[in-house]
Amino acid sequence: MRAKRAYGLKRPKLRQSWNKYNLYNLSRAEPPNITTRTFFQQKWSAKSTARAYHGETVKEKHWQRMFRRRLRSVIPMDHNQLARSDGYEQAEGRGSGLEPHPDNKPRPFPKTPYMNMTFAPLERRLDTAVFRAMFASSTRQARQFVVHGDVKVNGKKMIYPGYLLNPGDMFQVEPDRVMFATGASKDARERRAGRKARQKSQASAAKSQDALPSDTDPAPTTEDPSLTSTADEPSSDSNKETLQSLLSQAKNLLTTPSSASKMSGKRKQDLRAFQRLLKRTLSRSRSQSIFPHENTTLTDSLDAQLQELTQKLNINPAPPADEKIDPRDPGPETLTPENSSLLRKALTEARENPIDVTKPYATPWRPRPYMSAFAFIPRYLEVHHRICSAVYLRHPVARPGLGEVPTPFGNDVNGLSFNWYLRRR
Questions:
Q1: pLDDT digit string (tens) for 303-353?
Q2: Confidence bin at 90 (pLDDT 50/70/90)
Q3: How far apart (Å, rounded) are the C-alpha atoms in residues 28 and 20?
Q4: What is the DSSP string of 277-297?
Q5: Res. 383: pLDDT tops 80
Q6: Crossing angle of helices 175-182/139-147, nearest 10°?
Q7: C-alpha dist (Å) from residue 357 to 177, 183, 193, 354
Q8: What's the rounded Cα separation, in Å, for the pair 237 and 282?
Q9: What is the three-state SS of 24-72?
Q10: For residue 339, which of 358, 316, 359, 356 has the smallest C-alpha distance?
Q11: 233: pLDDT confidence band, cut at 50, 70 and 90?
């Protein structure tokens, strides 16, 4: 459902979002009509339009304190020309009509869009940097990630979206949150499968909770000798179900008001740490279920799986080229090298991007629709998408023909906005 207040179609406001309605508004955006307006009206309308995109979650008074009339810029210089000459040739023939050859004339630099750097201070904010690094689909979602504690700056949790990054700061986002933000949403079938999986886990948790004597009773320190024989070789499915039931029990204890009010703060911290330990164990067991032998390399595991699949499908490897085959004899099916490579690639993709109905996004993971139009990284960020971390290299600057602050507006709108805030400093 479209949020009419944020993505209106009658009076469109451009936002920092990957929403499809926002993309439609971007495609039909036109420069404002300034023929019948006073200069004050032009500045106000430009400020209103630009502020809807740059820092929509930032209060106006806060932004006025952040505004700086100094606009950072650089001018690239030809290092080869500086090494060849010290400038003496510019004084040769001055006043005598000596002109350089047309091929040797320096080419004029394109104009520097200084006004596009009006909202450069907002690019230092942590929520804006998370959105620019493609870790969230909008600045509002990036702000939610920061407030919920899913973002770390220099290895420490940061819960303030307005934290100003300094050059060299590294920020990280939880990979599950990034995959949820940038991945496609589930369809009806996948949501139904997720509900069934949750219901099954809740039922197993309720059964295990009924079997337990009490939450306050201490755990027994001795083992039952009758269970030692069966517990020598536990199955992976039973261990996984036990861990999931323990995880759901800990969650119920923390979320139930009657039990949570009776527990101390230390007890709650221990339960949360126990939850994190169980989640790590479950994720490790899931990866081990795909590849049970951890000490083997990826190639060996793929070869073993490939051989197992060919045996199950009753497929023989391709015969050598010099062997003669009777065309009238059908024989068993053969696996050509091309099909073998395709099967190996499919196994690799199944390992790296498995199907998991418990995830809040569609699996196997695929990018969300209408994402390609916003898939770019600014120059002042260095992003590593495999580990969901980025480094804020430096402050954005303007250079000839390029302003490093991404903006959908031209130099005229940003210039009017700059004049509006320049008057109020």
A1: 565 555 555 544 555 555 555 555 554 444 555 667 666 666 666 656 666
A2: low
A3: 13
A4: HHHHHHHHHHHHHHSS-TTS-
A5: yes
A6: 160
A7: 16, 14, 6, 10
A8: 11
A9: HHHHCCCCCCCCCCCHHHHHHHHHHHHHHHCCCCCCHHHHHHHCCCCCC
A10: 316
A11: very low
Q: Are 183 and 361 in contact (CB under 8 A)?
A: yes
At 406-416, the pLDDT tens digits run 999 999 999 99
d(CA 97, CA 93): 7
- The pTM assigned to this predicted structure is 0.66
Q: Which residues pair with 383 in a beta bridge?
A: 390
274 HSE (CA, 13 A, CB side): 17
The Cα–Cα gap between 56 and 131 comes to 13
Q: Around Cβ 179, how many Cβ atoms within 10 Å? A: 16
Distance set, CA 277 to CA 245, 250, 291, 386 (Å): 14, 12, 21, 23
